[in-house]
Amino acid sequence: MASVAEVTSALVKMGTAYNDPEAFDTVVSWMKMRWDIPVVVVVVYLTIVYATRNKIPAHGYTAVVDWCFALWNLALSLFSTWGFWNMFWTLREATEAKGLFFTICADSKFVMLHAGNRPCMLALSLFCLSKVPELGDTAFLILKRKPVRFLQWYHHTTVLLFCWLALATEYMPGLWFAVTNYFVHSIMYMYFCLMTFKSLQKILKLIAPLITIIQITQMLWGLVVNAIAVSSYFSTGNCQIQSVTVYAAVVMYASYFWLFGQLFLESRRAGGKNGKPAGVVRSVSRAISRAVLDDMDEQDEGAGAHQGGKKVN
User: Fold this and answer.
1) 237 CB-near residues (< 8 Å, 6+ apart)
2) In the chain, what are the helix, strand and coil shares in percent, each to the nearest 5?
3) How many domains does the chain have?
4) Which domain holds residue 37?
């Protein structure tokens, strides 16, 4: 089994030797053998969430936390932009040359041949590994003394475990999951970074529905890709996937649809009680924003303060 140093060396090598199957195999083999890492991380993460469920004591570092949160979101946005750029062009070229089915069901080594001068497989590997540090989203919510909602911790834990499983089993439809998620995160995290600045909040709120649309589109696209992989796997056996990963993907995406649907209905009911039902897109936007980073509560309170205490829908 490879050591952490060897895996790090393999990742560095993938940054220069884009078509090196040995380096990619080193990362995949390590993740396959080290399931103790994501399990321990998830257990510790959930323990912290439970321990701070009643909020931490008030502190005088709110401004520092806000600035660190902005920098954190900026870093994740830039990282996601880099990942999207390198994976998108590789998948585009592979799709044009071999077709969509090839990029979903081919062996990783064949897809790697279309990487050209881009570190596509490095971006894929870092995408899966980045789900561990992304738990920092929740850490900031705790430091900001905000409630960590169910969908927040459920989303982070399931995505972390699924991405680890996907790379360990070389689940090639995951290439499309990764590139779409990179794209969504590049916009979403930049949005939350800029929302730190009150002077930009009014303008930025106009694009909130766009973020909602691409988040929902990401889910739909994930189900389409998975459907193509599953139908091919069971009808012809020509798709290079493992059933355990397929089932995990279906369960994960289906649960997200159900949970987001519940949040949407709750948001609509809340709007109706105020005598002014919120629009469909706005309702979903608020639901997802609250579920993912729980940032809208503070923004709405700020808007309410400027409107004489009224909550703006």
Assistant:
1) none
2) 75, 0, 25
3) 1
4) 4-306
User: Tens digit of pLDDT for each residue in 237-288?
Assistant: 788 888 888 888 888 877 877 776 676 666 666 655 555 555 555 555 555 5
Answer yes or no: 155 catalytic.
yes
The amino acid at residue 251 is: V
Query: Which pLDDT score is estimated for 288?
Result: 53
Query: pTM for the full model?
Result: 0.83
At residue 31, the pLDDT reads 94
Could you give the residue ranges of the DSSP H alpha helices within 131-173? Answer: 136-143, 150-168
Q: How many residues does the chain have?
A: 313
Burial of residue 84, with CB atoms counted within 10 A of its CB: 0-12 exposed, 13-18 middle, 19 or more buried: buried
Q: What span, in angstroms and rounded, lies between the C-alpha atoms of 239 and 153?
A: 32
pLDDT of residue 263: 66
Residues 6+ apart with CB under 8 A from 208: 191, 282, 285, 289
Q: Is residue 311 part of a domain?
A: no
277, 206, 260, 18: which is closest to 122 by C-alpha?
18
- Helix count and strand count (H, E) for the chain: 15, 0
Judge contact between 163 and 222, C-beta under 8 A: no
Are the C-beta atoms of residues 178 and 249 closer than 8 Å to each other?
Answer: no
- Give domain status of residue 103, yes or no: yes
In a domain, 312, yes or no: no
Of 59, 114, 155, 156, the catalytic one is 155
Contact 188, 211 (CB under 8 A): yes
- Report phi then psi at 169, rounded to 5: -105, 5
Domain membership flag for residue 247:
yes
